Every structure is written in C-alpha cells, then in structure tokens.
Amino acid sequence: MPSTKTYGTPSPANKAIGGLPIMHYFDFASRGRGQVVRLMWEDAGIAYTDIRYSFDEYPEYKTTVIAEKNPTTTLPVIELDGKILTQSYAILRHFARQLGQYEGETEEEKYLADMICDIGSDWRTLFINAFFSANKAEAYPKHQETDRNRFLKALETHLNSHDLSRQGPYVIGKKVTYADLVIYQVMHDEQLTQNGRKGLQEYPRLLQLVDAVENRSNIKKFLESERYLG
Predict the structure, then answer these.
(1) Which DSSP letter does residue 64 get?
(2) Alpha carbon of 15 to those of 11, 81, 168, 218: distances in Å?
(3) Cα separation of 131 and 143, whole Å?
(4) From CA 51, how far away is CA 3, in angstroms rounded?
(5) Strands 22-26 and 77-80
(6) Which of 38, 60, 33, 64 has the alpha carbon at shortest distance from 49?
(7) Which residue of 4, 29, 78, 135 is surrounded by the most CB atoms within 10 Å?
(8) CA-to-CA distance for 193 and 187, rounded, in angstroms?
(9) DSSP run (H or E) holding 24
(10) What is the pLDDT of residues 42-66, one digit of tens each?
(11) Is 230 exposed, middle or buried (0-12, 13-18, 19+ CB in 10 A)?
C-alpha cells in the first residue's frame, strides 16, 4: 500500500500556490523528476503531502488511481486545489510563476533557464534509459563514459560562456531558478554530488552550482533531515 506523509507547516508560499499540494510519485529515495519538484517546495518553505508507490505495487495503481488523474499514467502527479498537474518541468514553471521567483525576470534570464532545463531533461532521459536498461551492467557504464561526460562538458561550457552565468553561482548568475534544481537533481541521481564529488572535479563551474544549491538554507536543512532518503 502506498505510504502517505505530510511535511511542513502551511506558509505564505502555500497560499501563493493555492494550498497544500499532494504529490503522487514512486518510492524512489530522494531521486527522480518528482524529487526536483519536492526540492523547490522545500526551498520555498511549502508544506506538502507525499504519496509514494513502490515499483512493485505501481502497476496496480497505474491502471486505476493514476489513470483517473492522468491519462498518460506517468508520474509525478500533483493534486492541488481541486486541480491535477502533470509533467514535472511544466509543474516547476507553473509554481515558479505563482511564487514570482525561480524563473528569472528578464526574457534573457527566462530563456537561459529554459534552455539549461531542456539540456537537463535530455540528459535525464538518456540516464534513465541506461540505468533501467535490461542490460544495465553494460548500458550504464557506457552511458557514464559517453553521454554523461558529453552533457557535463556541455553544461560546463554554457555556464562559463554566458554573461549572466558568469555573474554568480547559479544558471542566471545571482538568482536561483528551477533550472538550477533540475541540473542539481540529475547530477545527484547520477551520484555526482556524493562521495566527495569525484565525478565533478573536472567541472568547477558545476561544482559551484552544486555548492550554491546545497547551501541554500532550506535545502541544507532538508539534506540533513530524515526527509532526505539519499
């Protein structure tokens, strides 16, 4: 049976987004597309309810509970104020607009955040394909040596070459956006932010982004709490 827990106390940020959101997602530690949404909620001080489905039980709920809420039967699914929200990156942009932060202010900032997010999305797709491959023992090491390195180099280049990115630790410089959380989460899920960050030693600009995200007050508290599941 899915586990259900509520975290936090409703705050002004909850009021800004319309209430207390309920997330339906896999019981996949603190990883995946659903986790990046949780990371934004944690950073913004948003209380939320977390419903987690084990991989074994999900097929049963996929054809019933989830299918009723989302015709594509994909997760995460968010329930909020009588509405259903799907597609993780659209969800992030939606909450960013409601909160009046996390997406940049100028068109240039918004474009850069969107572009870096899209790169992160492409990277995550390749990562998931390899990580959950039927031949993972061969597919994932190959991914680590090829596609992962390609995306790390591309992101390092983008962040070092854009005028905005050079002004601070985040994608658009001094202000955090949803794109920082997206890139941080895929690096976390690839085990690049753990174990002394050995896989990021050749990418100082990405290390700077990781430090900035992990040292944000609410995220730091989250990573040190029982809510963080690795």
Answers:
(1) I
(2) 7, 11, 30, 18
(3) 9
(4) 6
(5) antiparallel
(6) 38
(7) 78
(8) 6
(9) strand 22-26
(10) 999 999 999 999 999 999 999 999 9
(11) exposed
Whether the bond into 76 is cis, omega within 30 of 0: yes
DSSP state of 198: G
Dihedral angle sign, alpha carbons of residues 207, 208, 213, 215: positive
| CB half-sphere exposure, 72, CA atoms < 13 A | 8
Specify the pTM.
0.97
Amino acid, res. 132? F
**pLDDT tens readout for residues 63-106:** 999 999 999 999 999 999 999 999 999 999 999 999 999 999 99
Q: What are phi and psi of 56, to 5 degrees?
A: -70, -40
Helix (H, G, I), strand (E, B) or coil at 53: strand
**Cα distance between residue 62 and residue 73, in whole Å:** 6
Beta strands in the chain (DSSP E): 3-7, 22-26, 48-53, 77-80, 83-86
